[in-house]
Amino acid sequence: MTRPKTDATKPKTAKKSSAGTGLKSKKKLSPYNKFMKTELAKVKKNNPGLPHKDAFKKAAQNWATSAENPKGPNAANK
C-alpha cells in the first residue's frame, strides 16, 4: 500500500529573515572560507586540468601553512 504524497500539495514559501525583509542576510565568511574561495581559484588557474576534488584538497593543504590561518604554525602563540 502506498501513501499519497502530501508535499506536492503544499505551496513553497521563501525563507524570511527576522527583519521581515523577505530575504536572508548573508552570513559573514570565516577566515577559512575566505581563504578557500581565493586559494581554490589560484590552484585551478595554475592547474587547469586538475579535477575539482584534487584542487580542493591542495587548497586545504595550503591552509595548514597559511599566514591567514589563526591556528596554523605561523599564528602567534597564545
Automatic annotation (TrEMBL):
<dbReference type="InterPro" id="IPR036910">
    <property type="entry name" value="HMG_box_dom_sf"/>
</dbReference>
<feature type="region of interest" description="Disordered">
    <location>
        <begin position="43"/>
        <end position="78"/>
    </location>
</feature>
<protein>
    <recommendedName>
        <fullName>YABBY protein C-terminal domain-containing protein</fullName>
    </recommendedName>
</protein>
<feature type="region of interest" description="Disordered">
    <location>
        <begin position="1"/>
        <end position="31"/>
    </location>
</feature>
<dbReference type="Pfam" id="PF04690">
    <property type="entry name" value="YABBY"/>
</dbReference>
<dbReference type="InterPro" id="IPR056775">
    <property type="entry name" value="YABBY_C"/>
</dbReference>
<feature type="compositionally biased region" description="Basic and acidic residues">
    <location>
        <begin position="1"/>
        <end position="10"/>
    </location>
</feature>
<feature type="domain" description="YABBY protein C-terminal">
    <location>
        <begin position="24"/>
        <end position="66"/>
    </location>
</feature>
